[in-house]
Amino acid sequence: MKIKLRNEEVNKLLDIETPEFPKYVAPLLNLANQYAQGTRPKVVGQMSELIQHFTGRTFGEWEKWYTKQKPEAIRNATEKILKTVETLKTAISQVDRPMVEKWVRDLVVLKTFAGLRFQKAILKKGADIKKTGYRLAEPEEEKIGIDGYIGETPVSIKPDTYKAKAGLPEKIPTQMITYLKVKGGVEVDYGEIL
Prior knowledge:
Number of domains: 2
Strand content: 5-15%
């Protein structure tokens, strides 16, 4: 038998208070913390390691022990997060209908197109570097694993994780270009093509 314990129930079973926050406040604070990195180990300590050294049993004992080990941690984390909250307040005060519409267009239209068509950009960049032409594959070529051509060379464009799937029965009769999506773009490995 499987039973799901909600966080509130776990807290109740462990005699831990469950703080209440107004709607949207907890996710906003979580976002601010992500930007501020206020609860990283360098600020609040490596929690998984600290709990190993804790010999008490109750939440009250844990809180007392932790604040003795890291007396400035809560204050330091709060300051980092609060500074980011102030920055977010300034940013949100600038949000109006045209800005939201611009953001939605960027996400729905521009990023979708770029995300779905970035193979063309990979081919074009490779062709630019080789000072040759490129083209996307025709449907019949796609059926055999060709995504496009750089010059006369047929290429297949796959995510970096594809290389780890060594047991795949698929044999692609082309040069392989792999990519890894990274913050702000894509990192492309043209392999032997360039």
